[in-house]
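INFO batch 0412 | record 1 of 1 | parsing
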Amino acid sequence: PVETSQEGSAWARQREAREAQARQTGETVSGDPRTWFYHDLAKEVRKYWAHGTKKYEILIAGDFNEKWDPGARKAGDALSSLEGLAAAFGLKNAMKEKHGVTPWTFRQELTGNATAIDHVLASEALVKDHMTAVGVLQGMRLNHSDHRAIMVELDLVGLLGLDNKAQRIPPPPVRIPRKTVRFADDDQVRG
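INFO prediction complete | emitting tokens
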């Protein structure tokens, strides 16, 4: 959400809801709706990022209503900004990594000011090894949005472990251990 004091805005409604929840639970409210969002998102990402048995590649894309500014983190809270969220999980801004810049995705109609407030964050290996293209759609609107779409192309053959005919590469054969019957095991030996 965009920080505003305007009554009825998403920012104000989220703050009111959080304060009502805090009154019920007796907790104190600190931070703001954007920081709460980043903490909630981090909680979900953490489930996959630190998975014990599988390796997940992470891709998060959205209208964050926030410019990419590596110096924007508030002291004491790494998750107070988009860059802080990215740094916490080793994610890269795909547009910045591929092109060195973050082109504008939104232009204010009244002022004509253009800003890059939509972003694609992805794990480093995803950007480096499997993201074949990323760019901003030019010259047309998509779904009546006032934002320009960010388009991402991924090499799904390599990412999903497919062969060149887009068939799943079979895993190595599973070795099934032979069961050993011991004469001392009454459940297995009937006499």
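INFO post-check: Residues 106 and 147 are 5 Å apart (CA to CA).
INFO record closed
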